[in-house]
Design goal:
This protein has 14 helices and 15 strands. By secondary structure, the protein is of the alpha/beta class. The radius of gyration is 20 Å and the shape is globular.
């Protein structure tokens, strides 16, 4: 692969229910610390959720927070942290050559629900409807708020890819860099899902909303006692660059994006397809020029729904059975962060290149044999000694699948 085709991650910014920096997030994953808590949502009362607690005032005034959206605040915090972490000379960076590519699952639900609730208190008088509603609810809002915060005049867009969106943000960044559309990409995924009661109500109506007397034990991927999804918010954003540009400025490099793929099940609104998932994984491996036997860590998508875990487990067995690949799951710690899920799950595993550890899947007391998972890292982290390749699965409704493969950087 030519030097100008090699794409690397040079900065990381995140907020997760159990950490507001990569170091904190990683340590809590290794320590088995959950971020799932009791939560109240409109009309439904007590539910469980993964709730972030980051400092919005670090990069926004109170007025900016009020005017914008929760997804925008998440994106602004993470993007600014990523730029700071990257060591870019931001004041002298050409902002017209920076692109912002953020995956989302949904956007605008929160603001619309809030406005309807507000006018319901005034006999549905639309005179009290906020004039900020339209810019809050357009699909490009989180990426657009990042451009306003950082003064970026290059392209920005959000990628609506359901729960495959975090990976899709990284894929879009790699493609735009290779096409020469930008020189720096700010990429990843964000979610404000917990602030809309509709997502809780919908999962509950499907029988797919998790419940447990202990919030920290609620999210149980691959366990026979799993009973649904824990909804979470969060964001994971990186600065992504061409290798030659990163090396020219002496940047630290977290990893190299060497392969990716997206495909569609074309079979059901909700139920996933093990066949299409396995095809997506194999397509990414082929593009990376490696085999399943090369992968050290597989970051699973598993959401703790019965059939979803079974389908992914079968797909992973079809590809990785008999290999060394250690399989783990991050949702067991934080819940399902929707558009941010794939990004956070990849970022939580990136430090494995340095410490050689695979974090665990927690709350796995009675593995479901129907998931048929080989080499699952259960309850305690595992020392792999050396990690060279990480494969990140991220799948979503309407049958959208995405896979990203990251390699430990070697010059």
């Amino acid at each position: 692969m030519a030097l100008d085709d090699r794409i690397v991650i040079t900065g990381v910014g995140l907020t997760a229910p159990n950490g507001n920096s990569l170091a904190e997030f990683r340590q809590n994953l290794l320590d088995g610390k959950s971020g799932v808590v009791n939560y109240e949502t409109r009309y439904m009362g007590p539910v469980l959720a993964g709730v972030c607690d980051f400092e919005t005032s670090r990069y926004q005034t109170r007025r900016e927070v009020r005017r914008g959206t929760r997804a925008g605040s998440v994106a602004i915090y993470c993007a600014n942290e990523a730029v700071k972490d990257s060591g870019l000379d931001w004041e002298n960076t050409r902002r017209d050559r920076v692109g912002v590519y953020l995956g989302i699952t949904e956007h605008g639900n929160v603001e619309t629900e809030n406005e309807i609730y507000e006018i319901s208190q005034f006999d549905y008088d639309t005179k009290v409807w906020s004039h900020h509603h339209n810019p809050r609810t357009v699909a490009n809002n989180p990426a657009g708020e990042v451009t306003l915060s950082l003064g970026i005049t290059g392209p920005h867009l959000t990628i609506g890819a359901a729960c495959a969106a975090g990976n899709a943000g990284f894929i879009q960044a790699a493609q735009m860099l290779r096409l020469g559309e930008c020189d720096v990409a700010i990429a990843g995924g964000v979610s404000e899902s917990i602030h809309t009661f509709g997502i809780f109500a919908s999962f509950q109506s499907q029988g797919a909303l998790a419940s447990h007397e202990d919030p920290e034990l609620a999210c149980r991927p691959f366990d026979t006692a799993r009973n649904g999804i824990v909804v979470a918010e969060g964001g994971g954003i990186c600065t992504v660059e061409r290798l030659q540009d990163a090396q020219a400025r002496g940047a630290k490099i977290y990893g190299e994006i060497i392969g990716y793929a997206m495909n569609s099940d074309a079979s059901d609104f909700v139920l996933p397809s093990r066949t299409r998932q396995a095809e997506c994984v194999n397509l990414a491996l082929g593009r990376a020029g490696i085999s399943a036997g090369d992968i050290d860590i597989v970051s699973s998508h598993a959401t703790a729904t019965e059939q979803g875990d079974i389908e992914e487990g079968s797909a992973l067995k079809a590809v990785f059975d008999g290999t060394k690949a250690a399989i783990n799951n991050t949702k067991s710690f934080i819940g399902h962060a929707m558009g941010a899920a794939g990004a956070l799950e990849l970022l939580g595993n990136l430090p494995s290149f340095d410490d050689g550890m695979a974090h665990a899947t927690i709350n796995l007391q009675d593995p479901d044999p129907r998931c048929a998972l080989p080499n699952l890292v259960a309850n305690e982290p595992r020392n792999l000694g050396e990690v060279k390749y990480i494969l990140n699965n991220s799948f979503g409704m309407l049958g959208i699948n995405s896979v990203v493969i990251v390699k430990r950087f070697e010059s």
